[in-house]
Write a structure and sequence with these properties.
five-stranded mixed sheet; single chain; alpha/beta; Maf protein; 26% strand; six-stranded mixed sheet; Alpha-Beta Plaits; 3 domains; 16 helices; 41% helix; Molybdenum Cofactor Biosythetic Enzyme, Chain A
Length: 417
């Protein structure tokens, strides 16, 4: 099944809110073996919504839509859909009673605006929303399906997993499977890997595809198999992964699709190691990445966000004369931060950063984007200086990922290679 996603909201187009819905939806549809061919973001305007629907239906039979279902005047999706599919608005007692319970359970009173949430087009099938007041609506016309869901991410996800995906599967009788395997590869460029894998790609079965997904310092290799025999797909992917292991050897450091922090956490957990971070310019972002992984309490002890020199001295034990002689953004200081937090929090491994994220604070000797990073494990300490260009947020993110990758390199015996 091919589908398109339409995301509605002026707030998305002006950058006030980041669209996380379409990414999540596309991933869930892909797990079902359904292909997302296009994602469109549009305003809350009635004509834009109708034009987007007509355009999408000219290409696919299924549209998943989020946004514009709230109770305020700027939420026009519901009446636009009613007009588009040739219906009229009616009051749905089931939705109303459910919303009354929703408000009562929170000790709130329903106002007139929220009462209008129970008004729905008579040409749709209403799917209850157990975690919100906007009903999910299923429209069918001439063999095509449109499902309208709330733009609130939590509500949309509950709807998708709770009802929408199963209804789509029953509607289309789609039994094809799609399976993925992802390998994360060290320090190979995308083009370099492509040359190494030319013969491998040429010998792939027609139902298996290989994709190269680069991020700084790492390339993810994703194998995708499609078909109606899931056992055959799984067996074939297992064989292809073993062939890749033979070709790439120790360049493969993780055999799952996850973040670098997730890959690091897996290594630490498997080896029974603990970690802490000492962060200046990254402001706790490395700790955030690590603790975003479920189960990270098994290996993460804590973090010291040491922005001032006083904190570097008092909590991390960085000598005052080292700070005075070399400055906070230096090899000597960041290595002392790493060993200091390792000792202070009694862990096996540590990551430390100190730099200038900007946009101010740079000097000719140490311009904005200069970041010293250090990692240590056992008695070994490794440091390097990165020079990252871009916004403050981008510099922090690049430094975060590079510092995490440094510890992965160390744990895999590749530091300095």
């Amino acid at each position: 099944m091919k589908t398109e996603i339409i995301v509605i909201g002026d707030e998305l187009l002006i950058g006030q809110v980041i669209d996380t819905n379409s990414k999540w939806m596309a991933a869930e549809l892909n797990k079902q073996g359904w292909e997302v061919t296009r994602i469109t973001t549009i305003s809350d305007g009635a004509e834009d919504i109708k034009e987007a629907i007509s355009s999408a239906f000219s290409r696919v039979d299924t549209i998943l839509m989020t946004g514009g279902l709230g109770p305020t005047s700027d939420d026009v999706t519901k009446p636009v859909l009613c007009e588009y599919f040739g219906g009229r608005m009616i009051f749905d007692e089931m939705v109303y009673e459910q919303n009354l319970r929703y408000f009562a359970g929170r000790g709130l009173q329903m106002n007139q605006s929220t009462r209008r949430q129970a008004e729905v087009p008579d040409v749709c099938t209403v799917i209850p929303n157990p975690v919100g007041t906007a009903p999910i609506m299923w429209f069918e016309q001439e063999g095509k399906v449109l499902v309208a869901m709330p733009g609130v991410p939590h509500e949309m996800r509950v709807a998708m997993k709770g009802d929408v995906l199963e209804r789509l599967r029953r509607h289309y009788g789609d039994n094809d499977a799609i399976l993925h395997r992802t390998l994360m590869v060290f320090r190979n460029t995308e083009s370099g890997l492509s040359e190494r894998l030319t013969d491998f790609e040429a010998a792939l079965p027609p139902f298996v595809k290989l994709a190269y997904l680069p991020i700084p310092g790492v390339v993810r290799l994703r194998l995708t198999a499609r078909g109606n025999d899931e056992d055959l797909l799984q067996k074939t992917l297992d064989e292809m992964v073993e062939k890749l292991r033979t070709i790439l050897g120790d360049d493969i450091f993780c055999d799952e699709d996850m973040t670098l922090a997730g890959a690091l956490g897996k290594m630490l957990k498997n080896r029974g190691l603990s970690i802490a971070t000492a962060e200046s310019c990254t402001g706790g972002n490395i700790a955030h990445e690590i603790t975003a992984i479920s189960g990270s309490s098994a290996y993460f002890n804590g973090s010291v966000v040491a922005y001032s020199n006083e904190v570097k001295e008092s909590l991390l034990g960085v000598p005052a004369d080292v700070l005075a002689q070399h400055g906070a953004v230096s090899k000597e200081v960041v290595e002392a931060m790493a060993t200091g937090v390792k000792q202070a929090l009694n862990v096996d491994c540590a990551i430390a950063t100190s730099g200038i994220a900007g946009p101010d604070g740079g000097t000719p000797e140490k311009p904005v984007g200069t970041v010293w990073m250090a990692v240590c494990c056992g008695g070994v300490v490794v440091s390097e200086c990165g020079h990252f260009a871009g916004s403050r947020a981008y510099i922090i993110e690049r430094a975060t990922q590079r510092a995490i990758m440094m510890l992965i390199d160390m744990l895999c015996g590749r530091s300095g290679k």
